[in-house]
Please model this.
Amino acid sequence: VSLDPIGEYLQSLAGRLRGWPWKRRRVLAEVEDHLRESAEVAEAAGADRAEAQRSAVERFGDTAALGSPRQGWSVPRVVVAAGLAVAAVVAAVVVVVERSSPSPRQHASAIKLVMRVAGVPVAARFKMSQLAGVVVVSARDGWAIGSASRGLRYPISKTFIGIAPVWPSHLVIYHWDGSRWHPFPAPNVPGTWFTQLSASSPTNVWASGGPGYDGGQGHLAHFTGQRWQLVHVPIPPKGGGHIFVSGVSPISSRLAFAVGAADPFYIHPAALRWNGRRWSIMRVPNGPDTDGTLDGVAALSASDVWAVGESYYHGPWQPLIEHFNGHTWSIVSSPPISGRAGLSSIAAISPTNIWAAGYWQNGHHGVALVEHYNGHTWTRISVPPAGTQTNVRSLTAARDGQLWLVGLRQTRTASYEPFAEQYTGQSWKLLALPTPAHGWSTLLSASALPTGGAIAVGYGSPRGWIYQPLVEQITTS
Amino acid sequence: VRSQALKGHLDLLLLAALRSEPAHGYLLVQRLAVMSGGEFDLPEGTIYPALHRLEAARLVRSRSFVHRGRTRRVYEMTAAGERALAGERAEWERFAAGVMRTLEASG
Model:
C-alpha cells in the first residue's frame, strides 16, 4: 500500500495530541483540511502528488512547533499510538450487565439492567462506521442510519498498522425487526451526512442531514413503505446557500416540518414545510445581527410547532426557542443562561408538556441544559450532573411521559464515555451504563421503545482510528 | 520577519486578517501573506493554537461544515474581537510611533 504523506503526518500527530477526544478530532480534521487544500493547490500548479503533500507538511511545520500546553495543543511525549487493524465485522454478541451496587449518585431501582447489543453487521470494506440516528416506530419496527467509510491500511512500522478514513463516506441504513438489525438498501449519496431519523408511521420515515461531498443540493431521505428515496431540499431564494436539515417532525404523509441552518457558514436559522410532494422554505425571525441555528423540531399540529437551537447576538451563544402558530414563526423567550448555552433536541409529549435539552458551558463545567414548557413558560430544570463535562446529543420521550437523554461525558476517572439520564415522570436520574472494556465510545441518538426503555446508537472505537457502530438497549423494570 | 518576533503579534494579525470576512485557516495564512506584502513567513500550523486561543477568549468564533468531503472550520470575528482589535491597534500605533520618534531623534 502506498504511503500518503499527509496521512502519515496526521497519524503521528494523532498519537501525540492530548485532551478531549473530540477536541483532538477537531484539531486533526482542521489540520487535514489545511494540508489537503495546500497540497491540492500545489498539485494544480503542476507538482507531483506525493511531492505536493510533502511540501504541504513541510510548510505546516513540525508538530513540536504546534504549541506548548499553555497554547492548547500539547504534545506530552513522543509515542506512536497508531490504530491497530481490527476486524470490522462484529459478531452478534449480547452482553447483559447488571449493576448490583450502583454508586450513590446513580439511581438504584429505575434501571435494573442495561443491555448492550454489539451486533450490527458491517460490510467488510467499511473500517470506519458509525450510527447517528435511530427511530423506533413500533415494537417490531425501527431504523438506524449512519455513515461508513473505507479505511486505508498502511504500515507505520513492522508492528503498527495505521488506518485512515477514505472519503467520501456512504449512507448506511439498518432495519430493526424487534430483535435484530439488518442492513437495508440505502440511496447512493456519497458524502452527504444524515444525522437524524423521525417517523409518523411505519410508511412515513424521514432521515435528515445536509450537503456533503457532492456539493449539490441538500437531500433528505424518505421511506414510504418500499424503499428509501432522496428528496430535494430547496435553496433559500435571497442569496442563501444550502440548508443543513437538523431534524424533521412529520405529522402525516402530507404534512411535516423541518429545521436546520443555512449556508453561508450554516449559522442562519432555517425552517421548511412538507406538503406531501415537496419541501418549501418558511420565513423565520432572524435579525441582521443575529446568527443562529435550529437543531431540533417537534410538531404537535399544523398550528403548533416548536423548534430549538442556539443564537448569537453580540455575546455568547444562547438557547433559541421558536414557535410556529400556523401563520408565522416567532422567537419565544426563555430563561437567560450565564455562559455559553444552546438547545439541540426537543421532545413534545403534549401541547403543555414539552422538553428541550442541550449544553451549558459555565466556566470550566459543561452540564446538560434541560428546559421544560408547561403551556405558558419555559423554565430550566436541573438534572444530576453526569460528569465534569457533558455533551447532550439526544432527547426522546415515551408515550407514558418518560424521557431519555443520551450523550457523552468526561468524568474524573473516564475521559470519554456515553451517559444516559432518565426522567421517570417525577425526577431525572443518572443511569448506569456498561463501561466499554477499552477504547472510547459515544451515544448520538436515542428513541423510546413502546414496551419501555429506549434504544440508543452511536459509535465506539476499540483502538485508534477505527470506529464501529454501537447500539445499546436500555431496559428498565 | 522572524517567526519569534511575529508570534507575539499573531493574535492581533489574525484578528486584522479576519476583520473583512470570515475565513478558514488555510485562507487566513494566504490572506496574512498578501496583507503583509509577503513579509510574514511562519510555519502555517502556528496559526491554529492562536485561533483556538482567540476562540476561547471569545474574540473569534467558529463553525464547521462539510466541504468536499472534509470538515472545514471557518472563523469569524465577534463584537468582542472588534473591540479588542481596535484597542490593540491603538496601542500598537502608539508603540510604533514611539519607536519611529526614537529612531528619528537618533539621526
Summary: The longest strand of chain B covers residues 60-67. The radius of gyration of chain B is 15 Å.
